[in-house]
Amino acid sequence: MKTVLKGLLLTAAGCAAIAVAGCAKWQEISLRYVPDSAAQAATKFFPAKVAVAAARWDSRDGAVGHVFEANGSRLAKLRIGQPGQQIAQVVAQAFQAAGLQPVAVGAVAPGDKPPPGIDFLAITEIDELTCEKSFQSTPGSGAFRLKARVRLKITVLGPRRAPFTGEGLGGFDEEPPGADPATSKPEIAEPADAVSIALSRAIRSVLDQPAIAHALPHRTAVPFERSRH
Predict the structure, then answer these.
(1) Distance of alpha carbon 94 from the chain centroid
(2) Per the count of CB atoms within 10 A, which of 112, 129, 222, 223 is most buried?
(3) Which helix (H) or strand (E) holds 147?
(4) What's this model's pTM, rounded to 2 decimal places?
């Protein structure tokens, strides 16, 4: 009897240790493009066809971070299913919002060129993609901290144009200045939304770089002329 009881106690202790260490379930993240309502991106480019390749990311399981309980234990592990395709879809949506005509083409090999009938090829490489949600310790408050960060490179290849590679950075960590972490409940609550916002911002930061005008057909603003009357 003592042996059985001891075994049960050891088992319970082991389960508790696993829980504290963070034996957590996977939570899948679905990405989407989140437009910037203040940006007038649709006038940036002429509607050239751009093949958007599946993104390159050195991640075997698509893991991006965790959701933590108030006591520090892991509630869930965050990951992106088929990240290459999902990220490419967001890139394509951002390109479309900027006036281009994106076409998904899947994975491409180094040195590949745009497919026949398509003007340009865009290849995205993810250098960093992380997300963390942490519940706060105040009982019953439901307060949490949510943040995400994305660093990437987008390379554009096209005929008779020099290759362009732009680095982009986007983040989400919008806790109001001076907010009390114990009671703060940000408007954005889901990790998928935080990552989508950070990724969208990173892509737009590349499209906003002046040097990209040498790689993609960029609309040039017409100088304002004063009336002579």
Answers:
(1) 12
(2) 129
(3) strand 144-157
(4) 0.81
